[in-house]
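Hi everyone, sorry if this is the wrong subforum. Our group has a chain we'd like a structural model of before ordering constructs, and none of us has done structure prediction before. Sequence below.
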Amino acid sequence: MQFFAGDASTVTAEHNWAVDALMRAAVSYGVNHGAAYAASRVPEIKELLRQRGFQEKDGQMVIEASRIVKICKD
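Answer:
Right subforum, don't worry. Here is the predicted structure as tokens:
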């Protein structure tokens, strides 16, 4: 995922909404293809991800996918 919003001083609520929606779509796609975790190396959205429960590990933001999307059993 890549998102361009300029520097941090120009980020608005609309930018955060778009990043959040893209992050959730990416995690949902990953879960549908067997992913158990989500990770991001995009430094510009680090604080937004931290607010959503991601934790920093080895230079990236990581979270269990089940904390972002509901995983249904077949």
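For your construct planning: The chain has a mean pLDDT of 85. The two ends are 28 Å apart (CA to CA).
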